[in-house]
Design goal:
The chain is an alpha/beta fold and 310 residues long. It has 11 helices and 10 strands. Helix content is 37%, strand content 18%. α1 (15-23) packs across α7 (210-228). Mean pLDDT is 87; it is low at 68-77 and 306-310.
């Protein structure tokens, strides 16, 4: 069997994956997707990835909103359908809400009502969270969204006024709040996901295979190495990725990776679905009492039995 093709976002959260490949014999082609979860959804649908690690809300919204074409196999499922198989990060994600460094008329979240939002891709986490933000603020109308693909393009977009604001992970955004950086930005607010932030998905034919189980076990080993070698993790993040050393240290105080990544709790799917429905990201009936297990089967390929974190 050829090496598994694994999509990931090349940010600080990918450090245990790097350690798994460097020290724990992870045999896989790691393919970076700097534009995020929405781009990996497209790649999975196209059969270009086998596994991907991305944002919870992006995966669940994609499965709920955009079911794949009916290209069924003998097993009765689409070759390019994917499901949640693992919990990578247990903590919520803090999204910084940013505008251009010199946008004097945008100083806080209330100034964003009716403004144009930059997102990486339609369906990405940066897109989904715009609905959560509108719901939090009590705004009825969704934002006009313009996909700009990358973090750099989003920073450029808020400065040349192509868009008015965007949302991106806080520590990734933080260093660009300095005026001496490329396309500097200004923070006007923040919002946390109401759910644990990073999940692992796999194409349906891989579920319940030794190859997937081996991959998940090796990610566990990478997370264990991360937890036992925090100084090395800080050095890697601050020298190989786009972060200051102090920011890497502060981030490590806030993040909690799963001790055992295998499986996803049904309750996480339900809670995320309920919020996405409330925010208007997806449509459909609310989950009724007693229907959780049945409905979760559409989303979850491996169910998590225990809550276990580091």
């Amino acid at each position: 069997m050829p090496p598994l093709r694994v999509g990931y976002v090349p940010e600080h959260f990918s450090t245990p994956l790097h350690f798994a490949q460097t020290y724990c014999s992870l045999s896989a082609d790691l393919i970076p997707f700097p534009s995020g979860t929405g781009h990996m959804v497209i790649a999975l649908r196209a059969g270009e990835l086998d596994i991907a690690i991305g944002l919870t809300e992006g995966w669940i919204a994609a499965i709920a909103k955009d079911p794949p074409p009916d290209q069924t196999t003998d097993a009765g499922s689409s070759e390019n359908e994917f499901k949640l198989v693992g919990t990578y990060v247990e903590t919520p994600l803090c999204w910084a809400i940013s505008t251009g460094h010199d946008r004097e008329h945008i100083t806080d979240v209330q100034d964003l009502k009716g403004k144009k939002l930059g997102v990486s891709r339609i369906g990405s986490g940066s897109y989904v969270m715009s609905y959560v933000l509108a719901d939090r603020e009590g705004w009825d109308q969704p934002f006009e969204c313009l996909p700009l693909q990358t973090f750099e393009a989003l920073r450029k977009g808020v400065n040349d006024r192509t868009v008015d604001f965007f949302m991106w992970e806080y520590f990734t955004s933080k260093r660009y709040y300095s005026s001496d950086t490329l396309h500097p930005i200004k923070k006007v607010g923040e919002i946390y996901t109401p759910w644990s932030s990073w999940k692992i998905v796999a194409r349906t034919p891989l579920i319940d295979t030794p190859e997937l189980d081996s991959f998940l076990e090796t990610v566990n080993a990478g997370i264990k190495y991360f937890g036992e070698h925090k100084e090395e993790a800080v050095q890697y993040i601050s020298t190989k990725l786009d972060y200051e050393e102090e920011d890497a240290k502060e981030w490590m105080k806030t993040v909690r990776f799963a001790r055992d990544v295998k499986g996803v709790e049904n309750s996480v799917v339900r809670e995320t679905m309920e919020m996405l429905q409330k925010a208007g990201v997806i449509e459909g009936e609310a989950w009724q009492e007693g229907s959780e297990v049945k409905k979760a089967k559409r989303f979850v390929g491996k169910r998590k039995q225990e809550h276990s974190v580091v």
